[in-house]
Amino acid sequence: MIYILMGVSGSGKTTVGQMLAQRLGCGFHDADEFHSAANKAKMHAGTPLTDEDRWPWLAAMRAAIDAARAEGRTHIFTCSALRQAYRDRLTPPDGGVTFVYMKGDASVIGARLSARTDHFFNPALLQSQFETLEEPRGALVLDIRQTPEALVQTILRAGAQEGAAAR
Asked: Does the N terminus or the C terminus of the chain have fewer Cβ atoms within 10 A?
């Protein structure tokens, strides 16, 4: 099982993803690990990424997703995956990926970003992320106002139901 926790920066993807990976005893990768230094510098400067900036980043993530699937292991990834075209690039032809949409409004997320001091993402980019966001179809949608533990529990319950339905 591959989970991709998606949403705008500051929505809690990394916090919840790390907790989920710990609970499942599986691997975890944050999308930031796959960004080039040039992409990180652009975002730090407050310059939105273009699709041309994103394609190599998404290709690197997809390679990691394919590797985890080939090994038959559960793995948690986080990625903004703001547009359907990006989610399509992350999804293998036969599926095998569950998207979890960390949904929240700009005021809640803006407050979180303002409090962050240890990340390269410039909070001035939040509005451009909301403008780019195409809400996903078929994803598990979570309200980020819940506690991280409650969000993990919701994902685990949904995964158990999905596993039971597949049997």
From this structure: C
